[in-house]
Amino acid sequence: MEGFLHSLVVIFQPVNILLNIVGMFIGILFGAIPGLTATLAISLLVPFTFGLPPIPSMILLLSIYNGGMYGGSITAVTIRTPGAPANAVTVLDGYQLALQGRAGTAISISLIAGTIGGLFSCLVMIFLSPPLSRIALKFSPVEYFTVALFGLSAIFAISGRSLLKGTMSGILGLIFSTVGMDEILPIPRFTMGVKDIQAGIPFVPAVIGLFAFSEAFRLIEKGEILTEITSKIGKILPTWKEFTGTIKETIRGSVIGTWIGILPGAGGTIAAFLAYGETKRASKHPERFGKGELNGVASPEAANNAVTGGAMIPMMTLGIPGDTVTAVLMSALIIQGLQPGPFLFRDHMDVVYPIFSAMILSNFIMLLMGFVLLPLTSHLAYVKKDVLVPIIAIFGILGSFTMSGSLFYVGIAVFFGIIGYILERYDFPVAPVCLSLILGPIAENSLRQSMIMSRGDVTIFFTRPISLILIILTVLSMTLLITRRKKGVIISEA
Amino acid sequence: MKRTEIIASILGLLLSLATYWGTVYFPKFPTPLAGPEFFPRLLAILLGVLSLVLLFRALRKRVVSAEGSTEKDEAPGEPVFWKMVLAMGISVLYFLGLSIFGFLICTFSYFAFLMLLMQSKKKVLRTIIWSAAITAVTYVTFGMVLRATLPMGSIFR
Description:
Low-confidence stretches of chain A: 490-494
Strand content of chain A: under 5%
Strand content of chain B: under 5%
Number of helices of chain A: 20
Strand order of the largest sheet of chain A: 1-2
Structural class of chain B: mainly alpha
Mean pLDDT of chain A: 83
Oligomer: heterodimer
Number of strands of chain A: 2
Radius of gyration of chain A: 22 Å
Shape of chain B: flat
Low-confidence stretches of chain B: 70-77
């Protein structure tokens, strides 16, 4: 309790509040501009947090994460274009509300629901993380391998339209992750004599390339795009009746979102669709959905914001990111010299508590800034792309360069930008490459250590209870995802 | 998409072979499943198998569409494709040019080039103003305020 109170003192320092506001602004901005996502914003900003202490850097990035989740709903409502895939389902009722002149109400309900969802998931994260990390302290390489395998099963969820191509992308990422010095025998692997990659392919420039550069190339190919204004914002604050009418579904969305967030790879898009479906199924008036039902906005928006806290749980406690954003956040912690996982809870509670508190604070800041910026952000879709694209490219380059002072990192970013663009152009998703890049070394090293421990006996994974449970969970998760695909539920997660 | 899938599967097979071949000279480890070659080889085999599946699926689609449908192959031949290739080329040139011409010249040129590439109607003055402004802002922010060591270029030394 004392640690938690101390964390409040830390996060309320003026500089940290300022970083929270700046991060929120960037997050909402990126979320609201169609095509740009919180993942892209975080990837671009991670290198610049290198010079900051761990807590301020995480405050900045986490507020981008929260803001990005909400920001995407703005254009989903106003111009029927979700800012991010997780806001796609908001279009169904949000845009109908906008056509009725109630865009302001729809966006503010999305904001309130998102805040409640985010706060709910933060509380779950705070209560669930410490006991989970204590269990994880007892993990050996055997358990770590199965946890990594469970994390890698997320590839099935973020594979986009083709499971085959998504899996191939994941394997490509795993192959990239084997580049560099071997961790058991001191020999270089696949380095082709390049000394700069002996420590492995640097994750941050690779992610900047995969997301920022490939996005810039894609936008260049699409050309300059402007969208016409089709709806009016109308009044901003919802009435008391409108607000109370959405509370139940907001809570439903929050619970679904938090649970989905904990699962590897499921992410905001699945959470939002699932929450929308459940809300519609439970409604006494399902016929109103798709025609401008406020609960059709509240529930999915609460769910996709609730994913943030849920997704942080496996990343913080086990050191296993469940999706692309948490993979990038994890790299930000590693850059700061902090290894996410159970030891973080044992040795760095001074960092863990402020991160938790900052997530709670950022939800309140989101609520405040969301209302203040609403009139401005509803026009963000009209930002001229001819200026935006070069800015993304320049920031990508600066980010890659400043984190190391080496032009080689710029080369890595450009190289992965080209790889990312080519992959996406031919329908191979890039998110699995990113996830595999960070999970690959964990999976390989723990597998090899397990094999040394067992002298090559693979049954070791089935004879230890936690490892066996995780294998069963991995198989169940993969089977569920394949079944959902067969039923036609295909969702891509950026 | 069939032709591109065939190309993708062939590239996948080549990468798979290259990865496997790259592990041939790794030293042997007493426990084979814990050796440095085990994981990359496993990945190479998996990639090879999946590439073959993709290849056969694409070939089968090709046969089916040749028999009945009039569906055409989608190839990267749209009019704007060259823009993106040009952008990639100039990005590589920017990376190579940074050490020679330095941050200021390269960033200004790169920004202006990308802006012009994005515009359907070329707005030269707007492009010059934005390029100069962004170059100046980034230089002041990163080079002077944050004191990052931005490349000055060998020709200015």
